[in-house]
Target: Protein NRT1/ PTR FAMILY 2.7-like
Amino acid sequence: MAKTTEPKLVPADIEAPEMPDSMTKKGGFITLFFIAGTLSGVMLSGFGWLANLIVYLVQEFNVESINATQIANVVHGCINLLPVLGAIIADSFLGSFHVAAISSFISFLGMILLILTAKLSSLKPPPCEIGSSFCRAPSKLQYAVLYLSITTASAGLGGSRYTLATLGANQLDKPKDKETFFNWFFFTVNASSIISSTAIVYVEDSISWVLGYTICFAANLIALAVFLAGQRFYRCDKPQGSPFTGLLRVVVAAVRKRKVLLSSRSEDYYHEHRETSKVMPVTANGWFRFLNRAAMKTEGDIDSDGLIARPWKLCSLEQVGNLRTVIRLVPIWSSGIFLITPVAIQSSIAVTQALSMDRHLGSNFKIPAASIIVVILVSSSFFVALFDRFVFPTWQKLTGRPLTLLQRIGIGHVIIVLSMAISAMVESKRLKTIHDNKLEALPGAIVPMQVWWLFPQLVVIGIGDAFHFPGQIALYYHEFPASLRSIATAMVSLVVGIAFYVSTALVELIRRLTGWLPGNINSGRLDNLYWILVTAGALNFMYFLVCAKLYKCRNIEKEVDANSDLDM
Model:
């Protein structure tokens, strides 16, 4: 019996090379000046209020510190989950430009409300009296206005960040240029966050909240103006309806035709683009073969014009290929959750550690504990630029081939695990110093150990972030179907949001099961927590290696060359 072969599938994102004239005349590097300016303003504004949210809630609204931390946790998580909603709206209905513009305007309204909460005494409770244990809680109206302002500002920030990443990448044609753009996108985000977390936070703490929020408002206004000024240069993507509908149709059609025998003849399957079906074929094997039934032509599936008559019973091979691409990426994407979870845990614990250490810089200046996280941002920004301008080009010259995106992500995994090991050793040193000075039973005691000891682990985290964050964004952008490009760049933000909640749950679980994380960390065993993260990170890295081994990336450069040949 002759062996049957599966039909060759083509991902939809390498289809028709021809573009409308209006699109070919727009885009290019000139648009990146507008997008970079917009991104800088959005991040300055957003992180200007977000970085100091806990302090604002405690000092201005008399919220208890634990409750303020919980509110901040929810806000951080939501801001990293909202980009997915923005991406769905961009891909399905409005396009990246309109979503970014609307989000920036929503953030603008949120900043106005935040300024009002800081300015008007009627919108916040009276301050606590010094030495008094009683503080008046905010009224329901004051809470309502506060939460409305935070929600609005969060929605604007979450909806604009990664939508701008998609819009920027769409302005460029060469895959190499797009990878470089993602590196500099990450650099711009970090650099803006550094300025917000230092300069604007200093203004809020030392001068006034109204002035600090007004600066955020001005940055948001300038960002919106710059973004709209570049409108005539942008190459805007056109939404094509919900891409998830097409993916769901494949599943439904395959299930409905589960009893249909698969054919080995390509003509028995429905092709959306016959010309591109001969270019860069993708074969389907294993359990993915089941999905081929969705594209099998049966009686009544096609009308007299050759178009699909029953869309929930017949799909194109290109749509089947799209679903397979998404399914194959899920394991690699899921490995990113526990790649970022340890970083989320360490970022919060490092602040707690810094509070118990000597933070003096000279005799008159004391480093704010919350500013210790700026070390990660500075490190990642510096190394992103270093890798893009020197390390990656040098590597390609020496080896004759560039580092692949999966290799960059894998290196990031290893470096993050290394940072956890460094953290465990530094914490062991801190605990030994505590024991030697008999400070275990003294909550709030300052350990005679400089805060600089925390810097190496934070710098190493920044190096790991510089490898895996741009690598993940570029990987998802290149590999996802063209109809899901906005969602692709938001996938990293989704990972961060999930990792943030996972980190909270993991710490709470360890607190319940062990005595390592008491209220007084000087009597705890944070080093054991870090060693658990090292072990889990190593296991997660092995899981990533298996996923990366099984996954084969599309050769973007060859696809571009193939499309160019079709134009001739």
